């Protein structure tokens, strides 16, 4: 994890920097803000994901010889700008919502304060990380709620870009998933990993029984056997005959699950395998999970729908300049007026209002270039990076644990209607004051 | 690009290996096949993406100290299996469709031949790369066709995981996109990059005019000015006043484009800027591009819809054991019979039948464990890796160029109906013989 992230950047950021270095405006103290104009698909809340990853990636946003040489050869920027980039290191301040926090339309999720030149070139990296990870965390949180007390394992790595898969696993865990199949996510982020066997293992052996015997010899009777390669009923008979009634679990990866699971439970019970757990993994999403709530499922495994954000694979967050300090030392709020894409200028301080029972009632965003906040609501901003140094508590596996715990707390504040799966309005209204 | 890819793997692959090493079945010569059961969203054809990337990533699928130590600590596999992994290097053969080739339901896109233990642990890496890159290439190819002769630039990095973004850019270029905003894709894959300025640059300056003057001073009058920060009409007046009628281009990133573009062209022409090009970049997908075909657009920029596969962010490809060689030396075709997810056993050799005009008529897949192929159709398989060594012609920027050229040829063979944007049947029927 030492390679440069500096070219994970859209070319226009460097050409803007080039022009701003030439005209002097690069040094203007600036405030950039990340927000989403709306929640996707009529969802009721969003979940901030990626913050801890982002802080590490910004630490590696340095232009080394390979990057500079390529920029020179391609004439992307001037020689002066190359010199400036060679010394580049982000020295500004980043505040934002905690990772795992919930957000609503217009919530100022991240605020980057730095000279324009330092901040403008982070746009793509910031958005790539927050847009993808938040899309996954948002979908995952709905699935976790739909599953109730039953654990969900993340198994979608094969349906996402190989690096995105690790990020998706991390985001899902923050939003309450119990474990993942992805080993790299285990190694790097400390996420519990799980998994036993695929159909290939059964197919490789001359009989299903031989495959089950081999798996039990290697992993013990507590393992989970995949029983649907040929015929589920026969598979379960064989599984319990081979493992005995102490068999840990069986997995179903096909079929009409709401119908099948009850029969499977009855068969297991009739064979004395009353403690054998049932894991289902067949193209599940939050709706399929909810539809199985009355079925005797013990564990869910979710793949494709998780890593693709269950219909919303990108969160739609944008990174906008909202204020700069002019030569007189005054902060100037700025906003574009583009048709359908207008923004709100000024630095912002968001708080969440709660009622006496601790349930959130609104998201109040103070535009502090207008007046300073005086508000009893829960403050939503924390300092993530200061003087270019990340707060270590947000990094690595500890940061993941903290974000997971924070998500659980943030969710507890939400009103009942936040958890409806149907499309509708955001659970909280965002007020700009 | 030297870090290990070995843990971009689902845990069950290593636990299967563990059991197979213990029972001896790990050494069975095996054939694994990648295919998709269907094309997403009623599309007419799919495009294979990611092959060149995959070959490089398999070359880095080695277990180093960091990976082995973590596996040991987590008790994922036995000590014997750890020793085996320490020496692991893929030594098998990989054949497959060329990158950029089109494919249909059941097309055997990739075939991995190796001892079971060597092949089984590549499943997740193979699928992650092919599923994501093919999803992007498939969406991109439709967009390129919808755009006709007008170039499309890829600008979606901010709406995808930061590493996935580089892969998406590469896949889009293979499918015919002209350029990308992503600098890392330029550096690593040799893809042309583009981009000039965002709204932030205009907002940072005291007036739009100052911003335009600065940009032109740095980049010349051939640059493209973003004119919709405040008011498009005024923006264009200012742009042409500052740059003169030789202004290279203007960009529109908002508004009702089919209505707006005609007016903008007329305004530019009336100002004498008849050669100034119009680039549009507002939430485009293949349908929006098609809807602009009668408007005087010169260049499209596509972001979110490209990197999210325009509604189908994962291709749904699977990696299945289809044959193994038993102790008598006979090849045994294997297939699972799972409800709704049955597979077809046996090694396969696909060819594409063409009519006398060179137009494809069907995808014929010979199951060679049944009988050897004798077929005048175009052979679809090439050897990508042999004895664990990749064919260098598929790697790096040269591999990307070759894939792009191949895609153009493959597309020319498709019948007219393949290019309909509406949902429907695959353009070719796949026949298993």
Automatic annotation (TrEMBL), chains A, B:
<dbReference type="GO" id="GO:0016757">
    <property type="term" value="F:glycosyltransferase activity"/>
</dbReference>
<comment type="function">
    <text>Catalyzes the first step in the biosynthesis of NAD from nicotinic acid, the ATP-dependent synthesis of beta-nicotinate D-ribonucleotide from nicotinate and 5-phospho-D-ribose 1-phosphate.</text>
</comment>
<comment type="pathway">
    <text>Cofactor biosynthesis; NAD(+) biosynthesis; nicotinate D-ribonucleotide from nicotinate: step 1/1.</text>
</comment>
<dbReference type="GO" id="GO:0004516">
    <property type="term" value="F:nicotinate phosphoribosyltransferase activity"/>
</dbReference>
<keyword id="KW-0436">Ligase</keyword>
<dbReference type="InterPro" id="IPR006405">
    <property type="entry name" value="Nic_PRibTrfase_pncB"/>
</dbReference>
<dbReference type="InterPro" id="IPR036068">
    <property type="entry name" value="Nicotinate_pribotase-like_C"/>
</dbReference>
<protein>
    <recommendedName>
        <fullName>Nicotinate phosphoribosyltransferase</fullName>
        <ecNumber>6.3.4.21</ecNumber>
    </recommendedName>
</protein>
<dbReference type="InterPro" id="IPR013785">
    <property type="entry name" value="Aldolase_TIM"/>
</dbReference>
<dbReference type="Pfam" id="PF17767">
    <property type="entry name" value="NAPRTase_N"/>
</dbReference>
<comment type="similarity">
    <text>Belongs to the NAPRTase family.</text>
</comment>
<keyword id="KW-0808">Transferase</keyword>
<keyword id="KW-0662">Pyridine nucleotide biosynthesis</keyword>
<dbReference type="InterPro" id="IPR040727">
    <property type="entry name" value="NAPRTase_N"/>
</dbReference>
<keyword id="KW-0328">Glycosyltransferase</keyword>
<feature type="domain" description="Nicotinate phosphoribosyltransferase N-terminal">
    <location>
        <begin position="7"/>
        <end position="131"/>
    </location>
</feature>
<dbReference type="InterPro" id="IPR007229">
    <property type="entry name" value="Nic_PRibTrfase-Fam"/>
</dbReference>
<keyword id="KW-0597">Phosphoprotein</keyword>
